[in-house]
Task: inverse folding
């Protein structure tokens, strides 16, 4: 026979699973590895895949986060994205940036316009 505490634990686990939302899918034109030549950021990159965003200095040292929401709007003729994401510790973060499609894509952080990220060309 199942005890009340065991049933309660299973019910709580089921509720947590049911309340967890699916990760938000990033638009295909944002997917890829992004690099900047800005002073102080040499060798660093940002990546965006279908459901994650991450930052690091190499593929082995990148911190990845689950994208929970992506808001897209237009500001002064530019496309503004606000990406909400969270880490394994459930800490929540946001990153706001402008996206321009020219030249293979360009991302400029809203609060740091000197940080211009260009999409890294994939090695075929």
Result:
């Amino acid at each position: 026979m199942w005890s009340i505490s065991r049933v309660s634990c299973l019910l709580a686990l089921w509720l947590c699973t049911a309340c967890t939302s699916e990760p938000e899918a990033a638009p295909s034109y944002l997917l890829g590895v992004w690099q900047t030549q800005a002073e102080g950021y040499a060798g660093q990159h940002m990546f965006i895949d279908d459901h994650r965003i991450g930052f690091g200095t190499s593929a082995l040292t990148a911190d990845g986060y689950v994208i929970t929401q992506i808001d897209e709007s237009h500001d002064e003729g530019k496309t503004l994205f606000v990406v909400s994401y969270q880490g394994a510790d459930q800490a929540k973060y946001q990153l706001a940036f402008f996206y321009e499609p020219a030249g293979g894509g360009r991302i400029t952080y809203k609060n740091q316009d000197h940080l211009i990220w260009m999409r890294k060309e994939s090695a075929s």
Summary: The beta strands are 32-36, 45-48, 52-56, 63-75, 78-86, 92-100, 106-109, 112-119.
